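Hi Q.,

Before the meeting this afternoon, I wanted you to have the magnesium ion prediction in hand. No need to reply - just skim if you have a minute. The sequence and ligand are here:
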Amino acid sequence: MKNCNCQEVWNKCLEIIKDNITNDAFETWFKPLEAVSLENETLTIKVPSVFFYEWIEANFITILRASIRKVIGPDAKLLYTAPFDNTNKQTYPSLNKDMTINPPKRVPIMIPDNTNNDVINPFVIPGIKPLNIDSQLNENYSFDNFVEGSCNQLARSAGYAVAQNPGKTAFNPFFIYSNVGLGKTHLAHAIGLETKRLHPEKTVLYVSADQFFQQFADAVKHHTVNNFLQFYQMAIDVLIIDDIQFMKRESVQNVFFQIFNGLYTVGKQIIVTSDKAPSEISGLEPRILSRLKWGLNAELQVPDLDTRIKIIKQKLFNDGGATMPEDVIEYLAYSVNTSVRELEGALISLIAQSSLSKQEITIDLARRIVDRFVKSNTREITIEYIQKVVCGYFNIPLEVMLSKTRKVEIVTARHIAMYLSRKLTKEPLVSIGEKCGKKDHATVLHACKVVENSIDINKSFKKDLEAIEKKIRD
Ligand code: ADP
Ligand code: MG
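Predicted structure with the ligand bound:
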């Protein structure tokens, strides 16, 4: 094998690999690799970035090893080399023990420096100058428009500090979480806008987790993952990722992890929002969750009455200074106490209704709107709520229902909770099972069958079930 040309050897390896993985995977992950040398049965291949190296090690090492051994021999070894690291030409051993020449070292995450200008911006059509990055920030979501209250004091002031000194405070990453409609997106934009105002030279980018995933999927499809990574790692000073709970796929999480590490290592600011605290998010990899806990986690809570009144007044002011009687403002603020989004919704409906029907805005009109609005919008039936009602009806403690007991009456209650969760929520079977005592989806399906059968043959069971369902819906 000594005299064999490394390119030839590599081509043979590629043929084997190609036969064993999907075409897309081959084009994306193997096409960009280059064989650099073959010395003493050690093949060195050049990867476009350290991310490729980690990805290949994590996903393709088995086939890569098999092909190299087949072509070079049983003692073949593998080394990777990445560009960007032109200061000291470092190579990385395969982390796979029996492919390693030296004992495996921890491989540093190398960050490409800014001298390479070939950054392709996934936000613009190819060809447009990459450095004009649209931050995707909404000017209306500013700090000026974000009413302060005890519900958001910590998050607001920390966000403000981040904007003064992005990447330089202890609040990196800055993690904002809350239920829906309480101002996460607004605050994230406000931080971005303020950062740009104070540091016009910095590049800020707001992106939703969905959009990020879409871009990544496109990059995989078009074999431009490397460009995607370079864009995020090289061009951005402040990265805002909204609604990270939607980043469910492992592949995109891996990419995010790399980008996160890259940005963090060089002191760039990362801002993340989510509907839950890091410890409660399901579906995110533990290594990402632990990273998210490094900085500051701040919760936005439901604003208290005074803050809700201020928010209404501010919205009226922004809406061209529309006026509204004080008692109506108070009534609205008092009755809509779920989220700021609901509050805004009720306010807009009220103004629209009054102008459409040419009626004055009065408490009476407000009452009618709120009744309609709150009833149809704010009630969301959750699995937890269903369980609470079922347990209340049968008078059994929740922990007993969720336990493993096989007592008939407990099993029946558990089945009913699962059946109604399936009927009344949009939750997938897996989550229903998980929340009903860690059962799998087949158990939930079985429970639903049992309940459906009992409805047909057992009148008193049917009555109980109807009574419970009515209680839940009311
Ligand atoms: P989330 O991202 O938490 O679901 P949003 O940021 O989209 O919530 O907020 C919902 C609406 O409520 C937006 O129109 C936002 O401007 C408004 N809002 C939330 N909090 C405040 C606040 N403290 N002051 C003013 N408006 C707010
Ligand atoms: Mg949001």
